[in-house]
Amino acid sequence: MGMNTLPSEWLQPLVFRDGRSLPNRILPGPMDGVTEGSFVSVLDAAGLAFSWFTPFIRISNGIPRRARLREKLAPYLATGKPVIAQIMGIYPDYLAETARRLHEIGAVCVDLNCACPSATVLGSHSGGYCLTEPDWMVEALTKMKAACGTHAISVKIRCGFYGADEIPDIAAVLREAAPDMVTCHFRTVRELYKPVEAPYSRLAQMHALLPGIPFIGSGDLFSVEDAQRMAEEAHVDGVAPARGLLKNPALLQEIAAACAGNPCATLSTEQRLALLNRIGEASGHRRKDQGFLLKIARVMFGEETPEFQQLLEDISGKT
Ligand SMILES: Cc1cc2nc3c(=O)[nH]c(=O)nc-3n(C[C@H](O)[C@H](O)[C@H](O)COP(=O)(O)O)c2cc1C
């Protein structure tokens, strides 16, 4: 196949209605418990991300105080890079006011999570459950937009709750609510992380039903080749790899290089280990963060590898 090429359009800034923007359309997929704190600071120091997409901030019994929201965004804002702040909840009025506050604090976009498949989240009727409530989705997104004026509102979805035959109905909801960006994982909520048939044709179908709305693809983006396949078959406007960042923290960089038509250097094992060590140092090797470090290492290297075993030894030596 020769050198990988990806759409150069993915390198274009995504400029929102209020003039704020993302530098490109290559976003780090949000991961609760992972793309936070030390992970963000290390990725940033190594120059491996262009913008941030926070994991969901749960809005349950009320509107969080500004101080708490500021604290949530602090590690991301500290990098000086644009931040998409994600929220999740069930009361549209709370979500709307929280979104307004997050924009005030400095988010460039506030995203509504309608995708999370965790049993706890579904049990509380938020996250992916929202896909079963089209009227609720329109109300929540419309109220968020109204509260935020010209500031950007986006939504993260999956291609259905029970089945991908829900795509046209979900798209109709989104056309009515008209968010400024949509990020779409090709699986349905019920499919969790199982393999699915023809994933990209689902994304293509959803995207085609959302003319004029920037459409970011998500799902199984572990390499430049994966991004290339998604680009070719689903014509997405950008990508948000998530788990792939744990295996290869330089993935966003490599995708950007391929968009520019440049050959991309891949990280060596030593470099990945060095990054992991820096994440460990940034988290201060505190007891509660070691599980976090190991979680990342397990994905980055695999449990059977000498690198992982070495890390286990290092860590147990420090407790
Ligand atoms: C540990 C973990 C935590 C996640 N947390 C979030 C989250 O807070 N918000 C969200 O929209 N998606 C979340 N996701 C979903 C990812 O952003 C992404 O859509 C999904 O994992 C599919 O992409 P991937 O195959 O590249 O990982 C999470 C995924 C993982 C694995």
How would you describe this protein?
The structure is a single chain. The protein has about 325 residues and is of the alpha/beta class. It folds into two domains: about 10-260, Alpha-Beta Barrel (TIM Barrel), CATH 3.20.20.70; about 270-319, no CATH class. Helices cover about 45% and strands about 15% of the residues. The protein contains 13 helices and nine strands. The protein has helices at about 35-45, 65-75, 90-105, 120-125, 135-150, 165-175, 200-210, 225-235, 245, 250-260, 270-280, 285-300, 305-319, and strands at about 15, 20, 50-60, 85-90, 110-115, 150-160, 180-185, 215-220, 240. The strands form two sheets. Strands 3-4-5-6-7-8-9 form a seven-stranded parallel beta sheet. Strands 1-2 form a two-stranded antiparallel ribbon. β3 (about 50-60), α2 (about 65-75) and β4 form a beta-alpha-beta unit. It is globular. The termini are far apart. The model has no long low-confidence stretch (mean pLDDT about 95). The chain binds flavin mononucleotide. Flavin mononucleotide binds near residues 29, 56, 218 and 243.
